[in-house]
C-alpha cells in the first residue's frame, strides 16, 4: 500500500510535468504496465486470501464441530454427574431423616423407660418407707408392750416395795403404799434418758401424706399410752384395793353379841378400852 501510494503520487507529479503527446503516451503506457503489475499482485493476494479464508473457514468449522462435540460430551457428563449427585443427596437426606427418626425413637423409648423406672423407684421407695415406718411402729409397740408388761413381781419372801406401810399406832388409818417410780418411755427402752422423744428424731424422709399418717400414728400412740396409763392405774388401784382389803382385815373377829359381852366383862382393858393389833398374816387368831 505504501508503494502504491508513492507510485500514485509520482504519477500525478509526472502528469503535471507532461510537455508533449509522446511523453503522455509513454507515461500512460508505464502507468498501464505498473497498474497491470499491481492488479496481478492484487489478484494473487486476493486469491491467496480467498484460499486462506477457505482454509480458515474449514478449520473453523472443524474446530467448531469438535468444540460442540466436546461441549455436548461435557454437558452430558455434567448432567449425569448432577443426576448421580442428586440421587446421592436424596439418599443421604433419606438416611439422615431415618437416622434422626431412629435416634428420636430411641430417646423417646429411653425417656419412657426412665420415667417408668422412676415411677417404679418412687413406688419402691414409698413401699420401703411404709415398711420401715410400720416396722418402726411394730418395734416401738413391741418395746412399749414389753416395757409395760414387765412389772415388779414379788420375790420369795416378799418384795418390800409392794408391802404397805401400816401405822401401828393407828391401824385404822388408810394404809400408805410404796409406789415404784417407773422410768420414762425412752429410758425404759434405750436405757438412757431421752427428752421429748418423737418419731421425727429418727430423721425419716417422709412425704406430706406420710407425715400426716405419722401424725395420726403419733396421736394413736399417745392415745395408746394414755389408755395404757389408765389401765395400769386402774389395775394398780384394783390390786392395791385387794391388797389393802387383804391386809386391812378387821382387828376384831366377827364375834357374836354374847362373845362381845363376855370379852368386855373379862378383859375390858385389852379389848375394849385399848384394842390390840394382830400381826398374824392370816389374822385368824382370836384375841
Structure write-up:
The protein has 6 helices and 2 strands; from the N terminus they run H-H-E-E-H-H-H-H. It has 287 residues and is an all-alpha fold. Among the domains are: 2-84; 151-248, no CATH class. A two-stranded antiparallel sheet has the order 1-2. Helix 2 runs parallel beside helix 4 (208-247). The chain is rod-shaped. Keywords: Coiled coil. Residues 217-251 form a coiled coil.
What are the SSEs and their pairings?
Blueprint: H1 2-16, H2 21-149, E1 164-165, E2 176-177, H3 185-190, H4 208-247, H5 257-266, H6 268-273
Antiparallel strand pairs: 1-2
Which properties best describe this structure?
single chain, 6 helices, two-stranded antiparallel sheet, mainly alpha
- The total count of helices amounts to 6
What structural class do helix, strand and pairing data support? mainly alpha
Largest sheet: 2 strands, antiparallel
How much β-strand is present in the residues? under 5%
* Main β-sheet, spatial strand arrangement: 1-2
Q: State the shape.
A: rod-shaped
N- and C-termini, Cα separation:
191 Å
Rg from Cα: 71 Å
Mean pLDDT score, rounded? 70
Q: Give the low-confidence spans.
A: 152-204, 272-276
Number of strands: 2
Order of helices and strands: HHEEHHHH
Give helix % range: over 70%
Keywords: Coiled coil
Coiled coil: 217-251
Amino acid at each position: 500500500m505504501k508503494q502504491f501510494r508513492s507510485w500514485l503520487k509520482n504519477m500525478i507529479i509526472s502528469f503535471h510535468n507532461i510537455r508533449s503527446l509522446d511523453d503522455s503516451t509513454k507515461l500512460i503506457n508505464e502507468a498501464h504496465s505498473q497498474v497491470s503489475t499491481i492488479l496481478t499482485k492484487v489478484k494473487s493476494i486476493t486469491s491467496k486470501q480467498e484460499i486462506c479464508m477457505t482454509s480458515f473457514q474449514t478449520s473453523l468449522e472443524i474446530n467448531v464441530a469438535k468444540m460442540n462435540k466436546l461441549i455436548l460430551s461435557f454437558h452430558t457428563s455434567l448432567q449425569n454427574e448432577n443426576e448421580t449427585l442428586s440421587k446421592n443427596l436424596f439418599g443421604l437426606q433419606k438416611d439422615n431423616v431415618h437416622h434422626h427418626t431412629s435416634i428420636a425413637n430411641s430417646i423417646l423409648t429411653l425417656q419412657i423407660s426412665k420415667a417408668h423406672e422412676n415411677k417404679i423407684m418412687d413406688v419402691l421407695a414409698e413401699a420401703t418407707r411404709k415398711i420401715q415406718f410400720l416396722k418402726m411402729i411394730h418395734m416401738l409397740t413391741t418395746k412399749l408392750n414389753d416395757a409395760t408388761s414387765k412389772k415388779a413381781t414379788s420375790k420369795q419372801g416378799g418384795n418390800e416395795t409392794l408391802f404397805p406401810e401400816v401405822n401401828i399406832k393407828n391401824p385404822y388409818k388408810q394404809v400408805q403404799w410404796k409406789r415404784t417410780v417407773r422410768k420414762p418411755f425412752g429410758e425404759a427402752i434405750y436405757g438412757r434418758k431421752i427428752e421429748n422423744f418423737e418419731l421425727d428424731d429418727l430423721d425419716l424422709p417422709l412425704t406430706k401424706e406420710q407425715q400426716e399418717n405419722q401424725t395420726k400414728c403419733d396421736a394413736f400412740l399417745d392415745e395408746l399410752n394414755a389408755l395404757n396409763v389408765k389401765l395400769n392405774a386402774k389395775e394398780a388401784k384394783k390390786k392395791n384395793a385387794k391388797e389393802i382389803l387383804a391386809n386391812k382385815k378387821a382387828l376384831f373377829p366377827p364375834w357374836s353379841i354374847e362373845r362381845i359381852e363376855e370379852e368386855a366383862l373379862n378383859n375390858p382393858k385389852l379389848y375394849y378400852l385399848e384394842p390390840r393389833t394382830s400381826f398374824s398374816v392370816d389374822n385368824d387368831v382370836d384375841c
